Amino acid sequence: MTLPPSAEPTLWELHRAVVQLREDQRDDIAQLRDDLRGDIAALATRLDQVVTVDVYRADQRATGQRLDALERDLSAVKGSREDDQAQTAANRRLVISAFIAPLLLSVVQLWLAARGSP
Fold it and tell me: How many whole angstroms separate alpha carbon 78 and alpha carbon 70?
């Protein structure tokens, strides 16, 4: 089927279509550029929060050293507590032997004297 000559676009219409196509492409490229800038800015803020492997390892070593020091301190406190408990037991024995035993012996002597043994 043949088209009548008036159905073909004129040069002005072709020019306008090409100009519109260029404007659309320019707008799309500008939008892509803006999106890319936003993505790069978001990535930059995320990269500011990232820690390097060396810093992370150093932090882990420092944490390990602090835990080791705490464990040593805890074992020293436990040893000190055991020593204190042993000292408390020794003090109880000393109190018994120094005060209660002589008092008990005095009571026994008084009882024997009251009983009248020669």
Answer: 12
pTM above 0.70, yes or no: no
How far is residue 56's CA from residue 64's CA, in Å, rounded to a whole number?
12
- Give me the pLDDT at residue 97, please: 85
- Interior/surface letters 84-95, b for 16+ CB within 10 angstroms, e for the rest: eeeeeeeeeeee
Distance CA 92, CA 101 (A): 12
Question: Distance between CA atoms of 2 and 15, rounded to whole angstroms?
Answer: 24
pLDDT for residue 59: 94
DSSP string, 49-84: T---HHHHHHHHHHHHHHHHHHHHHHHHHHHHHHHH
- The pairs formed by 66-72 with CB atoms below 8 angstroms and a separation of 24 or more are none
